[in-house]
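Please go through this protein, sequence plus structure tokens, and consider how the sequence yields the tokens. Keep your notes short.
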Amino acid sequence: MHRHRIDTHHHIYPPKYFAEEPDLIAAAAPGFKARLAAWTPQEALDIMDHNGIATAVTSISAPGIWFGNAEQTRRIARECNEFAAQMARDHKGRFGLFAVLPIPDIDGCMKEIEFIFDVLKADGIGLVTSFGTRWPGDPAFTPIFDELNRRRAVVYFHPTVPDCCTGLIPGINPGMVEFPFDTVRAIISLLFSGTFSRCGNIRWIFSHAGGVLTSLAPRIAMQAARRPDLAPLVPRGAMHEFGKLYYDIVSAAHPLPFNAIREIAGISHLLYGSDYPFWEPKVTSDNIAKLNLSPEDLCAIERGNALRLLPGLQPEELAARVTTG
């Protein structure tokens, strides 16, 4: 199969990471423990080859790497980032890297940012949407995002289940409901803290078409417009800020959510993603093929938008073209 897609929502499970807290990590994905424990880079490559994926930008999924101990979190962050960077070196052109930060350890984050960009040359940062009972717009995290803004970083968010909302409905995987809502909590947190407007150099990516943002966006915008205390933090309005964000269309390649997020952000801010290993890439690929997009729009979502956003990526066929002249 011709490898052309760029997968911006692709998770890895470094063995040392999974061994750290296997029960907590597996709890974020009920029924996947054995598969996550057996994950290998070669399995990822095989899946990519079978589904026309030229390059996957790797990230750590929920629950992230914070398990209550700052020293442990620093160590896990470094191990995960070095593992992912080595994958990219071992398989030229096949993997990019959204590196993880040891939030909420601010000093540890500042040191890791320097290592991530100056040594590993990562493509961006990958974070979860909340940390215990704090969201990314929390004032404590201001130094982190100000430094990422200075570096003109790409920051990707994957949802998680916050401490407040675990086990609310017995027998129901909390991620089914809480992932889409925690994505919006993170967006609201960044919006009304003024982080979006203050950090205009950051390119932000949110998973799953922004979760339930498409339903709540007008309501959020009206609140921003009617409250004088919020207006200075959203100087150009909430809808303007939503339109600047990027969104992958994992679990949203269906006419209802897709048309809604396209209305907010336009085709140029939509990205292909697989959510491997929790979903087979063909789920997104098959569904997006049913949306009756023009060839130009389909190419933009599956490839072009990601290459424009992440210019450090060099899929293998592009690398070969450069090498051969």
Remarks:
- The mean pLDDT is 94.
- The beta strands are 5-11, 53-59, 95-99, 124-128, 154-158, 203-206, 246-248, 270-271.
